Amino acid sequence: MSTTFRTYAPDQAVMFPSSPSEWLPEGHLAFFVSDTVDALDLKAFYAPYEGDGRRNRPFSPRMMLKVMIYSYCTGTFSSRKIGRRLYEDVALRYLAAENFPRHRTICDFRKNHLADFESVFLQVLAIARGAGLISLGTVAIDGTKIKANASKHKAMSYGRMVQADEKLRQEIQELLGKAKKADDEEDEELDA
């Protein structure tokens, strides 16, 4: 009796689901980032493009924000690495909606919108913290529930919340510093 193998046809025309959102499991971090950025006011990112009649159509700031926030949350800070991951990472392909900005475009977007980007990133992290998805510095995407005793000493007072927000701002500054450093090092290395 011969063995029957599962079908293997890598050149098959239709192998993936019809929608990229179906490629990711329910509750994936990419969905949270996408929904959260969609709910934010992004006028500051669109204002520089208004009425200048550009012939080169720029990438959507909403898409760029989703890609950058997801990349930073998953530990990718280099614009070159983000550019490569856009082709390889299903979540980034979903967030970019089959747009592929080059590394220079990603780097320039971050530089041109640095203050506004920090503000939006802080809002996204604050929403994630409020939803219980993160603990300062760690993005949790696991749904494990563990029984625990509540402690009145762990409850957050207003003063402690202000401190936590300041710590979050500092961590965002560090992340953006890592992104700038990674881009500068790669530019120096590859341009030399």
Key words describing this protein structure:
single chain; 192 residues; mainly alpha
Structure overview:
It is a single chain. This protein is mainly alpha-helical. The protein has one domain. Helices cover 55% and strands 2% of the residues. It has 8 helices and 2 strands, in the order H-H-H-H-H-H-H-E-E-H. A two-stranded antiparallel sheet has the order 1-2. A hairpin with a 2-residue loop joins strand 1 (134-135) and strand 2. Helix 7 (114-130) crosses helix 8. The longest helix is centred in the last third of the chain and has 34 residues, at 158-191. The protein is globular. The relative contact order is 0.12. The mean pLDDT is 80.
The major sheet is characterized as:
2 strands, antiparallel
Residue stretches low in confidence (pLDDT < 50, at least 5 long) are: none
Strand content: under 5%
Sequence of secondary-structure elements: HHHHHHHEEH
Q: How many H/I helical runs?
A: 8
